Amino acid sequence: MTCKRAKLSFQQRTDSRSNHHCCVPFCTASTKTNSYLSFHTFPKDSVLQKQWAVKIRRDHFIVTNTSRVCSRHFVTGDLIEPLTPAGHRRLQPGAVPVLFHWNNYNIPTPRLGLWERTERPPNTDLTVMQTDPDEDDPGSCHEHVYCTSTEPAALHLSLNENEELREEISKLRQQIEDLTVSSKFCLERFSASDEDIRFFTRFASHAHLMGFWKQIEPATINIIRVTRAQSFTKTDQVPHSASATVLQPIDEFFLFMNYLSLGLMQKDLAHRFRIHRSTVPPVIKKS
């Protein structure tokens, strides 16, 4: 990896945004390591706020003033350019995050509902009721058909029991998210230990590493990422197991430093960072 010599100021970022983290599961973006991303608060409208919570798969998430969703999860048309005079990026009214790790950061195709997927005979009208031949008979008593129904057992649970179940599910989801983050091999996991930083990157401390990253970070947005599908267009031989790189730019840099410092094999790097082995060489060559 080559770069021009420059006088570096090895200082960790201490601005007011340094504590902002993206609350989307599996997303490790923060203003500490991704200054070119923007971090947006939840809308004040309760309906739109609930849509955000459902989209990021945190149905019972408690929204606070510090809750943020990074711009990586919005389509380009939802981001207003240019920036405000204060340097902030705004969202279009009614914008909802739709790009996530679980849909490979692509706009999901809307799924048809059960009624649209079911074939129905022509002239089907739910508002038309079949005439009961005995409805003119004053002595008949068939109204009980509409009054008796077998309800699921869950509907008989008390409100307190339902609330306890919701709280338990919310706690379990939080535990899963915490375990997922703690098990990931990334720079953020070792940021609190200068000893680990020296071992994996050969930088003297995390502050020195972040000072160097601050100098090269603006250039990362101009990197052209060539997908495996594009690299095989000449031979029309696209491998069947192509996998997109989902690492943050700072973690791609961390992978490259692991490669230089420890001399790890590509298979070992792919296993550590949980990416496909075929995506390791492009990261190394790009760096």
User: Structural class of the helix and strand makeup?
Assistant: mainly alpha
Tell me the β content.
under 5%
Mean pLDDT value: 74
Helix count, DSSP H or I runs of 4 or more residues: 11
Order of strands, main sheet, comes to: 1-2
Helix share, percent: 25-40%
Which term fits the overall shape? globular
End-to-end span in angstroms? 6 Å
Radius of gyration: 27 Å
The topology string of helices and strands comes to EHEEEHHHHHHHHHH
Low-confidence stretches: 1-17, 127-131, 140-150, 226-244
Q: What is the count of β-strands?
A: 4
- Main sheet summary: 2 strands, antiparallel
What does this structure look like?
The longest helix has 25 residues, at 159-183. The chain has helices spanning 46-55, 114-117, 144-147, 159-183, 187-190, 194-201, 206-220, 228-231, 249-262, 266-273, 280-286, and strands at 39-41, 68-70, 79-80, 90-91. The termini are close together. It is mainly alpha-helical and 287 residues long. Helices cover 36% and strands 3% of the residues. It is globular. Among the domains are: 39-110 and 162-183, no CATH class; 187-286, no CATH class. Mean pLDDT is 74; it is low at 1-17, 127-131, 140-150 and 226-244. Strands 1-2 form a two-stranded antiparallel sheet. A two-stranded antiparallel ribbon has the order 3-4.
Compose a concise summary of this entry.
By secondary structure, this protein is mainly alpha-helical.
Keywords:
287 residues; 36% helix; single chain; two-stranded antiparallel ribbon; globular; disordered N terminus; mainly alpha
